[in-house]
């Protein structure tokens, strides 16, 4: 019995088609928030996801009150966010890379779960919550160390057991009164998480790295992304221009469904696990 048989007939057929399309090819993988939902991190746009208004880079940089609100909410969600574990989908991608099938993972996620699952070549398009940097002197800090500092400076903060966690590890705080915003310990400059905020551009060198991964592959798998963010759809277009097969695994519609070679409308953990089981035998 293979993992493909766990799906209903229509889904099993599309998974089998994906296996046939990808067999014998080296595969680049693009992932979005849907890959991490089985780790307890919610999706921005998935079914049932609450309407959110993410903070923009302009607001964060221009307003001390906005920064205070961000750091309170980010800290409240940090413990739960950091405690999330890689799920079977993350581990399946690590196995595909280890077997030489996947050339690497390009991710729109900032949770670091691909790295923790064992993937070696990971292009984090939108940065990572693991690091914080000073916008003045460039000093980089480990987020775990910053969390210790925040709690030392704000001992009144209580970490709730159950927080309405956001996809970026953020929660909406009830109050920000009295909160001391963390500053750079080198120059007292403004700290910013090492992530691409809404309103910011992906660093050019990071996108070139993602393009190179697609360019040196024979197929592209998109997993858990609706491709609403332009960086994702641009990479799909790069693959299409090179006439590479594009397999999309996502619950619900994406912006590139009409351009996909195969679309699998199912959960990423199950489908990626099925691909990891079947593809080594097909290569």
Structure notes:
Helices cover 37% and strands 15% of the residues. The protein is an alpha/beta fold. It folds into 2 domains: 1-41 and 86-126 and 202-283, TPP-binding domain (Rossmann fold); 52-83 and 128-195, SIR2/SIRT2 'Small Domain', CATH 3.30.1600. A 6-stranded parallel β-sheet has the order 3-2-1-7-8-9, with helices on both faces. The two termini are 20 Å apart. The model has no long low-confidence stretch (mean pLDDT 88).
In short:
The chain is an alpha/beta fold. The chain is built from 9 helices and 9 strands.
Largest sheet: 6 strands, parallel
Give start-end ranges of low-pLDDT stretches: none
What is the arithmetic mean of pLDDT?
Answer: 88
Structural class computed from helices and strand pairing: alpha/beta
How many beta-strand runs? 9
The succession of helices and strands, N to C, reads HEHHHEHEEEHEHEHEEH
Question: What's the tally of helices?
Answer: 9
* Number of domains as seen in the coordinates: 2
Strand arrangement in the largest pleated sheet: 3-2-1-7-8-9
Report how far the terminal alpha carbons are from each other: 20 Å
CATH superfamily of the largest domain, called what? TPP-binding domain
- Any idea what the shape is? elongated
C-alpha Rg, in Å? Answer: 20 Å
What proportion of the residues is helical, as a percent range?
A: 25-40%
Could you say what the CATH topology of the largest domain is called?
Rossmann fold
Name of the CATH first level of the largest domain: Alpha Beta
CATH architecture of the largest domain: 3-Layer(aba) Sandwich
Beta fraction of the residues?
Answer: 5-15%
